[in-house]
Amino acid sequence: MLHKLSGEILKLPMNAEKFTNEEYWEEIKRKIQREAAVSDITYHLWFENLEFCEVSGNTVYIRSEKEDERALGYLNNKFKLYFETVIGEELGQIISVKFILNNSNAVIEPEETKVDNDTLNPDYTFESFVVGNNNKMAHQVSVAVAEDPGKTWNPLYIYGGPGLGKTHLMQSIGHFILKKDPSKKVIYVTSEQFTNDVIESLRSGNSADSMSKLRDKYRTVDVLMIDDIQFIIGKEATQEEFFHTFNTLHDAGKQIILSSDKNFKEFKSLDDRYISRFAWGMTVDITPPDYETRSAILKNDAEKYNIKISEEIIDYIASNIKSNIRELEGALNKIIAFSKLNNNMEPDMDFAKEALKDFIYPSESNMITFDRIVDVVCQECNASKDAIMSNKRNADIVYPRHIIMYLAYDMLGITYQQIAHNLHRSDHTTVISGCKKIEADINSNKSGKNTREKVDRIKKILSGS
Ligand code: ADP
Ligand code: MG
């Protein structure tokens, strides 16, 4: 917890006056250095810039130039007791020490630094994670790991493309574990942070102190999560440190959770020793969400923001943004922001299209795919997609099915075999004859169904003109 100093001007007790003398203060710090048996490097790094600040009651405030809260947290954890002992002796009374950040007057409280969970995004919980076919297995395994960390699957390796929910799922595990047992030490880092910590330790000459700092951080935890592990592959020193961290934690039965954009088996340059270790645990993937999952995520989000978004708009976004949930949510957020700017008006379809014109590129929304051909033909011919895919042979199903075959061949340039496969037919000769029938009817209108006009209209819809 951070809390603010009162802002009152506090009078120093008589015998504390001497601390404002720089030389005297330096002497005290040197004494603490000896007591704590730390090197000159550490002294330089951590003690030199500490300023005696004020005394209030029996609390001594010490200000640090360091602007990083976590650095102060470290100081607090490691050296507070030495400061209290030495200063207390000088003052002849029992005191407690509080470290203050230079720029904020905020006091670092010890409990802040025990658990490194301030890095978890509070929104990334199991409760807000929508389960669909694309992530069912990954979700199930994650819940099992969260319920029994270190015991079920270790390591847990989650992979999948960008914006598909790896970070969200991973952090959900962290939240779950901490909620159940707040004393658990859970640490989440991106592989970039991990790399930086290793570099930092190397930079300080791999001194005993910097190494122990690094090890303290990573090897004493109950749960270690490293996100986007692909970025440490090929970075030798980081990889080596990771390897030892992994072994230490795994041997101690501590849970390790990793995420990546690929299955580890696909990393060509990855050493066998990593591969074998990753294989000890469980590997799960997250694939792009299907339409239902995309709409469910959007509906969830709309509910969260308490904004009414019509089915039509949800459908518009879910049909156009398919491969990245971050973008999907970005599109919805844009509509919500637009609506707020316009006196919270309930967005209509035109409004949504306008808001998303940079999001849903014409080329993307109008990209001609097999699925879109099926959708548009079904719509124009009043047929159901299920019937089209079924074995039904009634004329009102066979006709739109043939149009789909013709358009897929004509507009997508794919093979008869591929079309047969997409339509769940085993024999591609039915596709050939279907295409021929439509072609003939376009020229002759023998069926009297105005096939030429119909096909033209569908083509226009498909190309967005
Ligand atoms: P990744 O780490 O795979 O790149 P993120 O976990 O950062 O993806 O997810 C991107 C965004 O999509 C986040 O805002 C996240 O909350 C959201 N998201 C992803 N998957 C789901 C899901 N299944 N349910 C709800 N929100 C999700
Ligand atoms: Mg991520």
What is shown here, in short?
The chain is an alpha/beta fold and 465 residues long. The protein has a five-stranded parallel β-sheet with strand order 7-8-9-6-10, sandwiched between helices. Helix content is 53%, strand content 11%.
Distinct compounds present? adenosine-5'-diphosphate, magnesium ion
Radius of gyration: 32 Å
Portion in helices? 40-55%
- The SS-based structural class is alpha/beta
| Portion in strands | 5-15%
- Please tally the helical runs, counting DSSP H or I stretches of 4 or more residues: 21
Low-confidence stretches: 1-11, 110-116
Distance between the termini: 59 Å
Give a verbal description of the structure.
This protein is an alpha/beta fold. It has helices spanning 22-36, 40-47, 69-91, 110-114, 136-147, 166-180, 191-203, 208-219, 236-251, 272-278, 291-304, 311-320, 325-341, 349-355, 362-365, 370-381, 385-389, 395-412, 416-422, 429-444, 451-462; strands spanning 2-4, 51-56, 59-64, 96-101, 106-108, 156-160, 186-190, 223-227, 255-260, 282-286. The chain has a 5-stranded parallel beta sheet, sandwiched between helices. A 3-stranded mixed beta sheet has the order 2-3-4. A two-stranded antiparallel sheet has the order 1-5. Strand 8 (223-227), helix 9 (236-251) and strand 9 form a beta-alpha-beta unit. Helix 19 crosses helix 20. The longest helix has 23 residues, at 69-91. It is elongated, with a radius of gyration of 32 Å. The two termini are 59 Å apart. The model is unreliable at 1-11 and 110-116 (pLDDT under 50). The structure holds adenosine-5'-diphosphate and magnesium ion. Magnesium ion is lined by residues 166-167, 227-228.
